[in-house]
What we know:
By secondary structure, the protein is of the alpha+beta class. The chain has helices at about 10-25, 30-40, 105-140, 145-175, and strands at about 40-45, 50-55, 60-65, 70-75, 80, 90, 95-100, 180, 185-190, 200, 205-210, 215-220, 235-240, 245-255, 265-270, 280-285, 290-295, 300-305, 305-315, 315-320, 325-330, 330-335, 345-350, 360. The strands form 5 sheets. Strands 1, 18, 19, 20, 23 and 24 form a 6-stranded mixed β-sheet that branches. The protein has a 6-stranded antiparallel beta barrel with strand order 3-12-15-14-13-16. The longest helix is centred in the middle third of the chain and has 35 residues, at about 105-140. Mean pLDDT is about 80; it is low at about 1-35.
Amino acid sequence: MSLTLRHSPFVLASALLAVLSVSGCRGGGTESGENAENTPVAVRVSAVTGGQMEEIPLRFSGIVRAAQRATLTFQVSGTLKERPVELGQTVKPGDVLARLYNPALEPARDSAAARLEELRTQFEQAQREWERSSRLHQRGVVSEQTLEQIAARRDSLRASMATAEASLAEATRLLEESVLRAPFAGQVEALLVERDEFVGAGQPVMRLSSPLGREVEVRVPAHLLGHVRIGQELPVWLVQDRNREPATGTVVEIAQGSSIRGELHPVLVSLPPNSLSSGEPVEVGIAPVRESAITVPLLAVVRDSTGTSVFRVQDQVAQRVPVEVDRVIGERVMVHPGALSPGDQVVYAGMTRLVDGDTVEVR
């Protein structure tokens, strides 16, 4: 039977009078009264509802891609002369993927090497000259000023030699950059430049992807960023086969919100091995979580001089728990969050013979 807020004071008052009268009867010291106290009170209970509720997952589309991938480029410009790999070919780390020809690279390296050798020879000669002059200075043949000039020239040649070594190292690295090598084991995913074409520095030449690890990036509104966290598992459905059981992905990266209105934010989800292939369209489900009000049955609320309360049953023992009533919704009462938690069992029938701490028998 549905009860309204207008009738609830009468019900609560009646229950209170019944409890007080029963408590007075149980105060006697007769043997029958003692036996009655030891007898469990038969009650009926109902669960407290509310707390966090998970809504139907919202689906966001994305494309499966390799977790480890790279777009390879040359750091120097030139003409693509060699490309020994083909589309879809598997390569190992260090394998040569392409060679670039630049007529200025080798001469620059050779010139830097020759300059270093020249300076090294001059430095060694200056070192020997300083040693001879130092011995003559001890005999008084060479002045202190002359010896200092020879030492300054030697030190200048040492600094120039260090600069030449750096120039040689730079020229050697630039020449090495004309050879494109595989940074990791993978598969050639795309060839973006043909042989004998001119390639600028930094221009994409080919794409390489690793067969190990798959991921998908989806973009979600800013208000949903609070409903995902690092390490959270999300369902991933294959668009081409919606009857297939969804794979379970794990959130590995979450973008921070920005001040741009309406912008979507990327969320990166890692996929389990051997579950989905690169290029497959998928949908990732994100279920918003919302807070629901804590409610108890209207008949479970007892009012007395101390306020309103309910009897919570734990380990077959009834405990009085004070509650603060917010409002009545049909046959249930919304209470403020406090001592009660969703799933707790509260008494809604049999309270006329129940006091705090009684042993109960749930029926």
